[in-house]
Design goal:
With about 170 residues, chain A is an alpha/beta fold. Chain A has eight helices and six strands, in the order αβαβαβααβαβαβα. By secondary structure, chain B is α/β, with parallel strands linked by helices. The chains are: A alpha/beta (about 170), B alpha/beta (about 200).
Chain lengths: ~170, ~200
């Protein structure tokens, strides 16, 4: 099973059937897989902050939801994480492809890539970095369990070591 | 038309349908008009009221009503494009348009200078729009929207007035109470709330 299928399986095991996302080429493999699987309802958003709102709405009516975005997009949605997810105790897992690290070619991706984990720390969101296929299933399953047990958003940072995806 | 009176018009016809309310006076006035389990109040996340209603509409069979505002919707116009794209029949967006940022010092908003949010909605593919200036017009448009397939955007021009006190309810209680009214959170084993984890405690 490849990394994208592993994530899809973990989402299903946790009963997460609603996905909101802003596209990213490196994790297109997983968002495309989810989009073609009838188990999932996948909704593209125009901006990451909007994706948080859409996913929060799905959860509020009883449907577990998750978000996929790029690290640049995390910068577009910090207030939503704080003033909606944290204060309402909305458990929404956020899968973030971290740019600006190994193999990066675009200088514009570097500052937000560098800030991704410190920003998550500053607002109090736990994060785990996914870089190894051997431990991927255990890490995602464990993080999703923690997310619902704590009723807090959680971040799963995807490394190019995991997906070997092209950058764009 | 004042927003508090307009809110009462909506509540008169809402039945058991869920409402999500924009931050500030919209949330406060909804609480004062009628606190109900199916009110989802917000205190922050400016701009996301209609986005949340979209996520709700795509995930439950009920008609979902958003009480948004011009200043907030201007912050997230892209969500009108998402609503047009997803095209949920069970979504009614009501925009209280006072042409100002009412809570921060009554600064004029862009709708005071020609931006028509109902026309923006139309251009985004939201086929059903209405523009109302009185409680009677609002009542007629809302009742029609409840019967005819959406999505709908009703632009309601309002005048700002004195603000009521802060809605005294905790955000996490809002979520818990609201969510527990939806059947799938109780009965669907895949979407059971956190208390029903398959793992033992």
């Amino acid at each position: 099973m490849d990394w994208a299928e592993t994530i899809s399986n973990s989402l299903k095991k946790s009963g997460i059937s609603f996905i909101s996302y802003v596209p990213d080429i490196s994790i297109h493999q997983v968002t495309k897989l989810l989009d073609t699987d009838p188990y999932f309802r996948v909704v593209p958003a125009t901006r990451e902050e909007e994706a948080i709102g859409i996913a929060a709405g799905a959860y509020a009516v009883g449907r577990r939801s998750a978000i996929f975005m790029q690290s640049s997009g995390l910068g577009n949605c910090i207030n939503a994480i704080g003033s909606l997810c944290i204060v309402c105790r909305l458990p929404i897992p956020m899968f973030i492809n971290v740019r600006g690290e190994l193999g990066e070619f675009n200088i514009a991706q570097v500052p937000m890539g560098r800030a991704t984990r410190p920003v998550l720390d500053a607002i109090g969101v736990r994060h785990y970095t996914l870089e190894n296929l051997n431990t991927l299933s255990d890490m995602v399953d464990g993080a999703l369990d923690l997310c619902y047990a704590s009723r807090e958003p959680i971040a799963l940072c995807l490394s190019p070591l995991l997906h070997r995806g092209s950058l764009a | 038309m004042h927003r508090f009176d307009a809110t009462k018009v909506i509540l008169r016809h809402i039945g058991n349908r869920p409402i999500v309310s924009n931050l500030g006076p919209t949330t406060d006035e909804l609480w004062h008009a009628q606190d109900r389990a199916r009110n989802f109040y917000t205190w922050g996340s400016m701009g996301l009221c209609s986005s949340m209603a979209l996520g709700m509409a795509l995930s439950c069979p009920d008609t979902v009503v958003a009480l948004d505002g011009d200043g907030s919707l201007l912050m997230n116009l892209g969500t009108l494009a998402s609503i047009g794209r997803e095209n949920p029949e069970n979504l009614i967006i009501i925009v209280w348009d006072n042409e100002e940022w009412g809570q921060t010092g009554h600064q004029a908003s862009h709708t005071a200078f020609g931006t028509s949010l109902d026309q923006v909605a139309s251009a985004c593919g939201i086929k059903n729009t209405a523009r109302v200036d009185s409680e009677d017009e609002l009542e007629e448009a809302f009742c029609h929207a409840l019967e005819a397939p959406g999505p709908w955007l009703i632009l309601a021009k309002i005048k700002e007035t004195e603000h009521l006190p802060y809605a005294p309810i905790e955000p996490e209680i809002t979520l818990h109470r609201f969510r527990s009214t939806f059947e799938q959170s109780q009965n669907n084993p895949l979407t059971k709330p956190w208390m029903n984890s398959s793992k033992t405690a």
